[in-house]
Amino acid sequence: MSIIVWCVIFAVVIAIAFAATRMAAQNKEEGLHDTGLAIIEFNRAFPNEAIRQLQATANGLAVFVRLHDNKAGFMRSLQRHYACHVIQPGRVRVLSSQTGKGLSIEFLDAPHHNGAFEFTSAREASEVSLWLLGNYIAEPDKELPPANPTAANRH
Question: What is the pLDDT of residues 129-146, one digit of tens each?
Fold first, then answer.
């Protein structure tokens, strides 16, 4: 009779261990690949910012956000919660990574988020770098000087 009790206890322990490893694997796989979740979390942090476009990294642990007024934002998955911030103009430094599919980014206002971010393609990395570049240029510098009329334009 005691062998049956020990076998049942052993089976329960194995079942609990199996369930725990499955849950841990599921948590590891979760990230910000789900754009709906990224939108909800970013809007929870910044309800007055209108999202225009999102671009997740290849591993899904970070998402770059293009906002309506050409500002940029950033989200990073930190195990059980997400860190979100709006990148202030001129407060980020960007370099291309060695692979060409990534960016090495230094956040001057949030140095704990500095790092290399790899995307699935070079096109995605260049898109994000353009967002950050657009965010980097000051508003007065975006205005073009008035065009001088040329001989071809004169009537």
Answer: 888 877 655 555 556 566
- For the record, the structure tokens of 47 come out as 């309800």
Length of the chain, please? 155
Whose structure tokens read 């225009």?
Answer: 52
Q: Can you count the helices (H) and strands (E) in the chain?
A: 4, 7
CB 128 within 8 A of CB 120: no
Question: In this predicted model, what pLDDT tens digit does every residue of 61-90 receive, in sequence order?
Answer: 899 999 988 789 999 888 777 889 898 878
What is the bridge-based pairing of β-strands 51-56 and 102-107?
unpaired
User: What CA–CA distance (Å, rounded) separates 11 from 63?
Assistant: 42
Q: Residue 138 and residue 132: Cα distance in Å, rounded?
A: 12
- Alpha-carbon gap, residue 37 to 67, rounded angstroms: 16
